[in-house]
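Per reviewer request, we include the raw input and output of the structure prediction for the construct analysed in the revised manuscript.
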Amino acid sequence: MSRKAILKVDLCGKCKDNLLKKLSEVSGVAKAEATGDHQFTLTGDFKIEDINAAIASKKRCVSIESVQEIPKPDPPKPDPPKPPPEVVCPNTIVIHTKNLVFCFHGRNIGCPWDRCSDRCCSC
C-alpha cells in the first residue's frame, strides 16, 4: 500500500538539500520533494521506521506531520463481450418473416400440388 507523508522541516538550505537527498534514498520512497519552505512530501511504499531512522540526526528540526494511506485505483472493468458477427454465405438470401412454415416432406423443389396436402412447397 502506498503512503504519503508530510514532514515539517526547520533547517537551512544546505541541510534541507542533504536531508531531501537522504530521504529520497530510503527504501520504498518513490518521490521526495520540497513542497514549501518548511515542508517535504514523501510518496511511495516506505516504512515509517525507515523515515525515522533517516531523520534521526535532525530529530529536533524535522517532524512528521501526517501519514496517509493512498488507496490503489480500482482495476479497469473489462468490456462486455461483443456478440459474434453474423456470418452469411455470399450466395444466400436471408429473409426475416413471421410464422414461416417449412415443407417437412423434403421435396420442396418440384413437389406436385396433389402430393403436398398443406401446400407449403414452392411448386
